[in-house]
Amino acid sequence: MKDQPSPLRETDDDARKLARVLLRSARHAAIAVIAPETGFPFASRVLVATDIDGIPVILVSQLSAHTKALARDPRASLLTGEPGKGDPLAYPRLTTQCLAEPIEHSNPFYARIRTRFLARHPKAKLYIDFPDFLFFRLKPEQASLNGGFGRAYQLDGNDLVIQSAANEEIAARATETVRDLVERHPDVEESLATRLKAPESGSWRICGVDSSGFDMISGDSLLRYEFETLAVDADHICSNISKIAYSIP
Q1: Considering the entire predicted model, what is its pTM?
Q2: Residue 179 pLDDT > 80, yes or no?
């Protein structure tokens, strides 16, 4: 009996980039955890943002079933990738297996994560500071990418994490970086939306930057752009964004 060919393709840079975009452009995701009472998988929906290193972050109530499950067993899977018209299985999606780490108010990363989460989910301001809500960082361990029919890839968790010594410096100046860029170029966000062919859903604004790219938001729509190479500092981010916005097509 002949061996069956592997359904997996060799993971290349295009697959890694697609996986990163699917994870970092998600505003919400399906999360699967292990129910402590039964041992069965338990699926729910969560809002998602990303930390400065690209690691997904969720904000959850301590009263919810998936939060209680993560407190007992940190293993979880996130499903990201939105279908469009027609067959939903024809659209790319990413399943990321993660280890959840709670981020308490006393954590030095808390203020940064809170700021980045609210930039992507401004309506969460209504409850983000309730005492029974907390953040989890979901560190990717491995991932399965389905890029559409016949395009399956296996990825390592590190393929989804921004490995840069500049992360902390960029995080400390992120808000200032975006503010200064917009002050120097008042039309930069409009130019980016046009250049990147963003949906005409209203005005777009930059809601997050990191050394690997930037995020733009308009209402409930989110757009993620990945740089060709990692930015080494905030000035490099501004330079990259300006080139994208104003370079001759």
Answers
A1: 0.92
A2: yes
